[in-house]
């Protein structure tokens, strides 16, 4: 049933989950899907390059402050490690649903390593919409289960004979 006017929905059964920037175009690769993938790739790469420029300015600021080579090296290593961890976490999130508790505990690390997340998004969008494979598997499983349940539910339930108690 439609929530807006109470009429039956034209499409019964499971619906695909929309993806950020792609909506549900990932299902049939329609609605300018290739153009959206190119846009996601270019956009995430441009954002990663801009982020690297901002980090470069931060590095130059530390060098101008003359705080010492230890702190400068520590900052570079911290951003490199956090970016690598964020890349891996983001990449794994495209293949399986992340644990919400773990996601919350890694929020700070992922914020520091945002360049890694942007690069993961860039590389995944070269082959598919990020998260498409996971959503497709879930959707196809839901469709199979819906069809299996629908095959068992044949006939009019109001005409079903009741068993005597």
How would you describe the overall organization of this protein?
This protein has 165 residues and is an all-alpha fold. The chain has a domain at 33-142. The protein is 62% helix and 0% strand. It is built from 6 helices and no strands. It has helices spanning 33-65, 69-93, 100-105, 107-112, 114-125, 132-152. Helix 1 (33-65) runs antiparallel to helix 5 (114-125) and helix 2 packs parallel to helix 5 (114-125). The longest helix is centred in the first third of the chain and has 33 residues, at 33-65.
Provide a compact summary of the structure.
The chain is mainly α and 165 residues long.
Distance between the termini: 33 Å
* Number of DSSP-assigned strands: 0
Rounded to an integer in angstroms, the radius of gyration calculated over CA atoms is: 24 Å
Which sequence of SSEs, written as H and E, runs from N to C? HHHHHH
Key phrases:
165 residues, mainly alpha, 62% helix, elongated, single chain
């Amino acid at each position: 049933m439609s929530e807006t006017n109470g009429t039956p929905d034209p499409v019964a059964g499971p619906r695909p989950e929309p993806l950020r920037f792609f909506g549900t175009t990932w299902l049939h690769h329609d609605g300018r899907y290739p153009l959206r993938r190119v846009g996601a790739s270019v956009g995430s790469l441009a954002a990663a390059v801009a982020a690297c420029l901002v980090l470069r300015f931060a590095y130059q600021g530390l060098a101008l402050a003359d705080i010492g080579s230890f702190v400068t090296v520590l900052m570079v290593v911290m951003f490199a490690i956090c970016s690598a961890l964020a890349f891996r976490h983001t990449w794994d999130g495209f293949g399986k649903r992340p644990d919400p508790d773990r996601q919350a505990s890694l929020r700070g690390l992922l914020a520091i390593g945002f360049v890694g997340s942007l690069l993961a998004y860039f590389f995944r969008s070269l082959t598919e919409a990020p998260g498409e494979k996971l959503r497709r598997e879930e959707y196809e499983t839901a469709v199979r289960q819906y069809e299996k349940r629908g095959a068992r539910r044949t006939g009019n339930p109001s005409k079903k004979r009741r068993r005597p108690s």
